[in-house]
Amino acid sequence: MAGAKNILVINGPNLNLLGSRETRHYGRDTLKAINARLAGRARKAKVRLATYQSNSESELVGRIQQARRERVDFIILNPAAYTHTSVALRDALAAVGIPFVEVHLSNVFAREPFRRESYFTDIAVGIICGLGAKGYELALEFALQYSGRK
Ligand code: DQA
Q: What's the predicted TM-score (pTM) here?
C-alpha cells in the first residue's frame, strides 16, 4: 500500500465537547474545527476521509465493523475514556485488522496513573499523545505515507 486512500477518524466519548472541555488538557479547538482541517488536508491529497464521533461503546464497535465493509485502509483513533476500559473496542479493531494510530490530545503519561494503561497501544501501528490537536494532523500525514512498513 503506497499511502492510505480511505481513512476514517474515530473519536470516543466526550470529545464532542472539545473546545470547552477541560481546556488545560485538551485545548480550545473544537472537534468541528479539527475535522475541517483534516478534511482539507485529505482533499488536497485526493484521498477519502470520513470522521465519526460517538459517546456510545456499542456505536463505536459498529462503526469499526462498518469500516471493513467500506474498505477503510487506515483508522485514526482517539478512544478517549474507552482507552482505559474497552476490551470490546480493542476486539473490534483486532477483528477488522485495519491498521490504526492511537491519538490522545493530552499526555496521558503525565496525568492520573489509570490513564497510563491503554487497551490499544500494543495493537496500534503507533501512538501520538500530548501534542494537542496537532496529533490528529500528524497522524494523517503518517497515514498518507503509510506503506504497511514503518
Ligand atoms: C484522551 C485522554 C483520555 O484519558 C481521556 O479519557 C479522554 C481524552 C485525550 O485525548 O487526551 O477523554 O483520550
A: 0.97
For ligand 1, say whether the CB of 78 is within 6 Å of any of its atoms.
yes
State the DSSP H helix or E strand holding residue 68, giving kind and residue range, or none if neither. helix 57-69
Ligand 1 centroid to Cα of residue 1, in Å, is 30
DSSP string, 35-49: HHHHHHHHHHHT-EE
Strand partners for 8 = 50, 75
Q: How are the residues of the chain apportioned to helix, strand and coil, as percentages rounded to the nearest 5?
A: 50, 15, 35
26 given a catalytic annotation: yes
Scanning the structure block, which residue is given the C-alpha cell 459517546? 55
* Alpha helices for 73-123 (secondary structure H): 87-96
pLDDT digits (tens, 9 = 90+) for 9-67: 999 999 999 999 999 999 999 999 999 999 999 999 999 999 999 999 999 999 999 99
Which residue's CA is minimally distant from atom 7 of ligand 1?
A: 80
β-strand 48-53 against 74-78: which pairing, if any? Answer: unpaired
Please compute, for residue 120, the number of CA atoms within 13 A of its CA located in the half-sphere on the CB side.
31
